[in-house]
Amino acid sequence: MIEPHAPAPPGAPPAWRGPARLPVRPDTGRLLVLGCVFVCAACGLVYELELVALASYLMGDSVTQASVVLSVMVFAMGIGSLAAKRLRRLGAAGFAAVEVTLALVGGCSAMALYAVFAWTGDWGGLWANGPRVLLVAFSLAIGLLIGAEVPLLMELIQRIRRQDAGGAVADLFAADYVGALVGGLAFPFLLLPFLGQLTSSLLTGAVNVIAGGALVLGLFRRDLTCRARCLLLTATVTVLGVLASAAVLVDDFERAARHAVYGDDVRVALRTGVQEVVLTGGTGGRPLGLYLDGRLRVCGHDERRYHEALVHPAMNGPHTRVLILGGGDGLAAREVLTHPGTHRVDVVELDPDLVRLARTDRPLSGLNSHAYDDPRVHVTIADAFRRLREMPAGRYDVVIADLPDPGITASTKLYSQEFYGLARRALRPGGRLVVHAGPVAARPRVFWTVETTIRAAGLRTSPYRVAGDDTGITTGPDRTADTSRAPRDWGFVLAAADTRPPLPLDHEERPLGAPVEGVRASTLMHPRY
After folding, report:
1. Does 275 show up as a binding residue in the annotation?
2. What is the domain-level CATH number for residue 179?
3. Least confident piece of the model among 156-170, 190-204, 395-409, 458-472
4. Which sequence ranges are marked TM in the entry (predicted)?
5. For the residues of 7-40, what is the DSSP string, one character each?
6. Average pLDDT in the 281-309 region?
7. Claim to verify: residue 47 and residue 162 sit in the same structural domain
8. Among 29, 184, 262, 415, which residue has the least CB neighbours within 10 Å?
9. Rounded to whole angstroms, how far apart are CA atoms 325 and 385?
């Protein structure tokens, strides 16, 4: 056997220093290294998914956030692999340093992102482009460290027993890819639903640092000096202490952050299988606020005006059967029920817990006038798109789309030409469709894209808005807690399938002038929001 510091054999890479002196048999040592590769790969993918999920939740537009995180991280992994060439001579010590740093940065990334969001107010003010900057910074740092793992692990596995490069790469990447599979499945099905985003990232960091430290201190400890072993043990214990302390305080942190985002009047905060639902106010004369994934969907002091503007123009005509897509809060149903002659109201809502709150929460059920207690109201828990596909044609006089903002990627299909084609099929002859299309003044291109898309589905449109400048309205659905950035108007599109003159509007709804030029219809395969 070649001694650890014997000269390298001909053709061996410069970093090769001979077989490591292991406390176990070489085959067992290789198995332990591949097991560490498996764990590190699983942790690395969880870090990536954590960043994507949290950025999508805080900033919306999950396609953009996923693209930013994954592209920056893959680029950084390449740079990290190149940089790790300089650490190969350090071998075990270099790998240990990478794992300690990665566990600290990756484990604390979700908490740091949420803290900045909570205490800087929707990334505004001094942070300006804070979401992108912080997201890119964490993606870059984590990607660099993940990229540095593979060359160092390759060095360690070759130190155990020399083998051809192709075989070593095959073994290493097999363990890496299987670990990534396990991490990718564990995040949505185990970590996120049972632990939440913050605790799952902290736990992942702890697993990461334990795996790296155990491998080096247990298997390659003879490659380190006594001083290096003490430093590594101290660093590992310190990082574990930081992560454990954060895990103990995570509930207090979440409460403090939630109050920073929503104010001190939070009554209900729950994570459903679909979204985070927060209720504020509603007692003691304070207006009720309903937040879905951090965006204000209902504000008690002006919601009635919004829902009246959404519902009443569409009810100007036959309205025996009405379909509400979304609207799980029951407020659109309340307005529909004020119209005599309404025999049935079908509500299609994706989140059953939101419907349950609308039924049982006293302030919210009082605000919707206990609409769900009316025998004419029937609730279906389903995806609106899928429900429309399964629905018989010509069933409803009115279809009301009270849905999240089209700028949120998960809702983009509900503002597509295909979706409006299905809604048109559900209408009876002479039936009407009404859509909330977002603020006109703040996002005119989005509004007119909605209108263009509805026309492309074969519907005749009458776009209108309710302006806030002279009404005192300062809020609207889908805004965040930063009132200085609140939209000042609400935009709607009323549509019908026939070719009669423009649809009539009430005196408070204002028709709009010429649309923004150059907008095109949004489709499932080419979303344009």
Report:
1. yes
2. 1.20.1250
3. 458-472
4. 31-57, 63-84, 96-121, 133-153, 174-195, 201-220, 232-250
5. PPPTT--TT-------SS-HHHHHHHHHHHHHHH
6. 86
7. yes
8. 184
9. 9
Q: Is 383 annotated as a binding residue?
A: yes
DSSP 291-346: EETTEEEEETTTHHHHHHHHHTTTTSS--SEEEEEE-TTSHHHHHHHTSTT--EEE
Residue range 346-377, pLDDT digits in tens: 999 999 999 999 999 999 999 999 999 999 99
Same domain, 116 and 224: yes
For residue 6, the model assigns a pLDDT of: 42
Instruction: For residue 310, give both structure tokens.
Output: 């959404």
**Helix (H), strand (E) at residue 368:** none
Supply φ then ψ for residue 450, to 5 degrees: -60, -50
Q: Do residues 153 and 243 share a domain?
A: yes
Q: Is 329 annotated as a binding residue?
A: yes
Please check if 307 is assigned to a binding site: yes
Look at residue 440 and give its three-state secondary structure: coil
Asked whether residue 219 carries a pLDDT value surpassing 90, the answer given is: yes
Domain carrying residue 342: 303-511
Q: What is the model's pLDDT at position 201?
A: 97
Q: Are residue 312 and residue 185 in the same domain, yes or no?
A: no
Nearest residue to 283 via CA among 353, 356, 355, 361? 361
Rounded alpha-carbon distances, angstroms, from residue 125 to 134, 361, 521:
15, 35, 34
Tally of CB atoms within 10 A around 230: 11
Choice among 346, 402, 478, 489 that is catalytic: 402
Query: pLDDT tens-digit profile of 174-216?
Result: 999 999 999 999 999 999 988 989 999 999 999 999 999 999 9
